[in-house]
Amino acid sequence: MTTMTSTPEITAATPLVRLRGIRKSYGPVLALRGVDLDIAAGEVHALVGDNGAGKSTLVKVLSGSVHADGGQIEFDGRPVRLQSPAAAAGLGIATVYQDLALCENLDVVANLFLGREFSDRPLAGPLRRLREPQMRRRAQQTLDTLSIRIPSLTTPVGSLSGGQRQAVAVGRAVLWGSRLLLLDEPTAALGVEQTAQVLRLIRNVAERGLAVLVISHSLPDVFKVADRISVLRLGANAGTFDRRATSAQTVVAAITGGLGVEGMV
Amino acid sequence: MNGIPRSTADLPSAAPGDGPSGQPQAVGQPGGAGGHTRGLNRWISRGRPADLGPVAVLASIAAIWTFFQAQDGAFLSSRNLSDLVLQLAVTCILALGVVLVLTAGEIDLSLGSVTGMCGVLLGVLLTEHGWPAWAAIIAALVLGLAAGLVQGLVTVLVGVPSFLVTLGGFLTFFGVQLALVGSAGQISVSDPSVIAIANDYVGKTQSWIAVTVIAVFLAALQVARRRAWRREGLPAPAWRSVTAAALPVAGLAVVVGYLNQYLGVPYLLVILLALIAGLGWVTQRSVYGRHLYAVGGNAEAARRAGIRVGAIRVSVLAASGLLAALAGVVSASRLYAVDSNLGGGTLLLEAIAAAVIGGTSLFGGRGRIYHALLGAVVIESVENGLDLLGQSDATKNIATGIILVLAVCIDAVNRRRQGRIG
Predict the structure, then answer these.
(1) Do B116 and B222 share a structural domain?
(2) Closest residue, chain A, to B312 (C-alpha)
(3) Is the pTM value of this prediction over 0.90?
(4) Which residues contact B2 (CB under 8 A, 6 or more apart)?
(5) Is A135 on the interface with B (CB under 8 A)?
(6) Sign (positive/negative) of CA torsion A154, A185, B308, B349?
(7) Residue A147 touches chain B, beta carbons under 8 Å
(8) Which residues 58-117 in chain A show a CB within 8 A of chain B?
(9) pLDDT of B33-55, one tens digit each?
(10) Which domain holds residue A217?
(11) Which residues pair with A45 in a beta bridge?
């Protein structure tokens, strides 16, 4: 990637999100046993770990759909409580789930504005008229700034490729002014070229100043896109690494429980 | 849903027939790069799924009409087509409700019973209680709305599939209908204003004035729309606006001219077209319409986007109850009487068939208001033509059944070709 602009200063600055000692248990199962995580604005932060390491739980805590049993969450330097997905959304935390939550029968513009359509008179309430030209233009602007290429904005999303759908879902999150974007396995179902597109898109999003947290099983993808890589193991931190100062073996060692201190931040 | 292979979606031939633009549509380009500005120029089907359906249905209507005209020269006479309009009104009104309900991913099996119950209530109030026509009509419509509302609320609040709730409604409302009819068996309806609904015609001069007003209105609408698109720096091709205004007006003028050769434009046709225009606007241009399609397409995505999925579901079932009540009023007017058979027989299935033949998907998310009219024209043309030829009910049912299955097959093949689901 030639577009990397992240610098050590970013990571040194006050992080947008600061998690300290996050704990969560499901009955007797300890999913998270005191996890710390800092995510800076403009940074792509990858979260890796084996199955059951607690990655998904941590993302759910951040997206407000799971309440942590303990620990502190600071957003923008202020302590916050993420009681519900709506509360998280209110802070500008957007989650793109693996299923993308798109309506395949609706076109790209309709999906980007789903539930937040621009509308005006002549009628009131739910019968307000859609302001289609305005939505179309905003949609085009947003997709352009992210360099997302979709053949036609009037195409039903059901006939787009997997990468394009992912792009629409990410575009929707960015359009609504998110500050932290959570991506759950964004490349899991994609081919090589589409994966490259999505990774480029993730970099573009970070360059617009958003903080991005990516869960991924694919270490090659992680090394292409992330600035920092945090490893979870058995619900606890197993190291945070600067992507440029570490190797895949080190990260693998951290994931599997071998010792990996080299390059650790 | 993800389990269904959509490999064919990547073929260029998967471009749905947005013919007039003549531009190849790069649907699902594997690379996805490039061509997006050209794509933007495709002003077609703003915000709506492109659909190929109407062309196929119009072609089959042409084929059916040609066939019957060849068999019996009276089929395309203005008198017979005028009768056809009256004949298809009830099916079409019910099919409008079916389109709404199916698009939201629900089903309403109680339509026929609600029609019968409300029609009979109208007759009882008029004939046995001497209510004025307007009050009796309102009472019938309110009963239909309430029936739909209750079924919608049970569906949403208790979480029972609408299939089962409305199956129960089908039986319940039929029972109410029987109770209302009582031992009389039949109640005649003679109130002149109720009879007028399905038996009067718009004056010939008035009908042309109406066509002119509509023409001016549509032209003004297109001018305003072009201005709005231009203001956002988006292209608004002139041919598109001209067609959007001229096609409906030309079609309307032909219909009005032809019907005026007989007794004129039936009031029922005015009611039908007003319903289609109003509901068409609501489904295509309003926020509610957008949410309706979202709920039918992916209810979970709609819920996460903050759309009140339950409210949409209740609203479509309420609307279909109201439309069924209107169909009951129209039936009472047409038949000069109501009885325990009203709304029974194959009416419900024909209404569902009409919506599906018109192009509405049984699986939610895909449906257009005009599908109800197209499908009703197909079904009632076949019935009317076979009547002219003196064929039995047996033949009519067989023919309608085969057409329904053919329509569904065409829809299924189309959908697979377009790589679209549902």
Answers:
(1) no
(2) A126
(3) no
(4) A99
(5) yes
(6) positive
(7) no
(8) 85, 99, 101-107, 109-110, 114-117
(9) 333 434 433 433 333 334 556 88
(10) 8-99+178-256
(11) A213, A228
Q: What is the number of domains present in chain A?
A: 1
Token pair recorded at residue A203: 């970099």
Is B41 contained in some domain? no
Cross-chain residue pair B40–A134, CB shorter than 8 Å: no
Candidates B26, B228, B290; nearest CB to A110? B290
ipTM of the complex: 0.80
Tens-digit pLDDT profile for residues B286-300: 999 999 999 999 998
Among B6, B21, B36, the residue to mutate for chain A (most A Cβ within 10 A): B36
Question: What does the alpha-carbon distance between residue B288 and residue A77 come to, in Å, rounded to a whole number?
Answer: 40
The token pair at A2 is: 């030639």
Q: Which residues of chain A make contact with B290, given a CB cutoff of 8 A?
A: 106, 110, 114, 117, 130
CATH of the domain at B299: 1.10.3470
Band the pLDDT of B417: cuts 50, 70, 90. low
pLDDT in the model for residue B236: 80
**A26 bridge partner residues:** A29
Question: Residue B359: is its pLDDT beyond 70?
Answer: yes
Tokens coding B16: 């749905």
Q: What is the overall mean pLDDT for chain B?
A: 85
Q: Which residue stretches of chain A have pLDDT < 70?
A: 1-13, 258-265
Eight-class DSSP state of B191: -
Distance from C-alpha of A31 to C-alpha of B23, rounded to nearest angstrom: 54
| B240: contact with A, CB 8 A cutoff | no
Chain B residues touching A147 at Cβ < 8 A: none
For residue B73, being part of any structural domain is answered with: yes
Q: Is A120 on the interface with B (CB under 8 A)?
A: no
- Residue B53 pLDDT: 67
The distance of Cα B405 from the centroid of its chain, to the nearest Å, equals: 19
Chain B residues whose CB is inside 8 A of the A193 CB are 30-31
